[in-house]
Design goal:
By secondary structure, this protein is of the alpha+beta class. It contains five helices and 16 strands. The protein has helices at about 1-25, 25-40, 70-80, 110-115, 230-280; strands at about 50-55, 65-70, 80-85, 85-90, 90-95, 100-105, 120-125, 130-135, 145-150, 155-160, 170-175, 180-185, 190-195, 200-205, 285, 290-295. This is Malectin-like domain-containing protein.
């Protein structure tokens, strides 16, 4: 019975923890995880300038990653005409300087609002990201991002699947920095945005009353540190607490059933002993090397043949 209970506990807990493990990742932790899976897409000897699409774990289904390995000088002199939704012009520089770098592409799809919540706004397109890493070790994980910036023309992002803008509302481009801040900018040709550095980008529209004024970020945009962490942690603890409570309750139920079975068995043995004690005891006598029950007297006395002799 306990094995069956443990089996059901595992079936119940594993899907919850699996979904929760993805939800409790921060945006920066997600960047590190996607860097690992993007680098895995690069074969043993990847060709420079070729885009390699990566695969993400099943608990992040929908998110897309890709990796593009480039020479630093080639990126600066030629740029990249088309890398997914990104057009990288000439004159892009990285800091610190490296000989080769990998540009990692993200498309968060339906996970956008989970990792980049923006109260009061609705996403009209999925968030796409572009981050740069040193390519000296393609098997490395948890790498620090390079700081890439456009020194001439800005980087252009042609966002996919942009939804129609509700009448009377004005869409805005939004860019998220690695420090958790964000900036608003104007949309170009209804579906494109521009940026001077790496980060994550999308198009949003405000659907509620204007939020309180936020501190301006360097560069003229509006800045806000990534909030919602405490709220997400509160949800995590609620789910973990409910799972642990359910497990403890199920274990207590199993222990109670085991005790109940043990009590019924002892009760049956006690009843059998009482029934045996209420029976009529027989006199025991030694017969050879064993003991056997004997009767106190016979019911019919035997008749002797001598009694009938005249």
């Amino acid at each position: 019975m306990l094995l069956v209970a443990y089996f059901y506990i595992i079936l119940w807990i594993v899907p919850v923890l699996r979904a929760q493990s993805a939800a409790e990742l921060s945006a920066r932790s997600l960047d590190s995880l996607l860097q690992d899976y993007a680098f895995r897409a690069l074969v043993v000897r990847p060709r420079t300038g070729i885009v390699y699409d990566g695969n993400v774990p099943s608990n992040l289904t929908g998110i897309k990653v890709a990796a593009l390995r480039l020479r630093s000088g080639s990126l600066r002199r030629r740029g990249v005409n088309s890398y997914k939704e990104f057009h990288i012009p000439i004159g892009v520089l990285e800091q610190p300087y490296v000989e080769r770098l990998v540009l990692v592409y993200h498309n968060l799809a339906n996970w956008s609002s989970l990792y980049y919540p923006l109260p009061g706004y609705t996403y009209l397109a999925p968030i796409v990201g572009l981050l740069a890493y040193d390519a000296v070790n393609l098997s490395a994980t948890n790498l620090q991002e390079l700081d890439i910036r456009a020194s001439k023309d800005p980087i252009t992002i042609h966002l996919p699947n942009v939804q129609l803008v509700p009448k009377g509302l004005s869409p805005k481009c939004i860019s998220f920095g690695l420090d958790g801040s964000f900036q608003f900018d104007n949309v170009i040709n209804r579906s494109a945005c521009s940026a001077a550095k790496q980060g994550h980008f999308s198009i949003v529209v405000e659907f509620t009353a204007p939020a309180p004024a936020l501190a301006p970020a360097p560069g003229g945009g509006t800045s806000r540190q990534g909030g919602g962490g405490e709220k997400n942690n509160h949800k995590v603890w609620i789910i973990v607490g409910s799972v642990v409570g359910g497990v403890l309750l199920l274990l207590l139920l199993c222990i109670l059933l085991a005790c109940l079975r043990k009590y019924r068995r002892r009760r049956n043995i006690q009843r059998m002993e009482e029934a045996a004690e209420r029976g009529e005891p027989l006199l025991m006598a030694n017969v050879g090397f064993t003991k056997a029950p004997v009767a106190l007297e016979t019911r019919t006395r035997p008749s002797l043949e001598d009694d009938y002799v005249p």
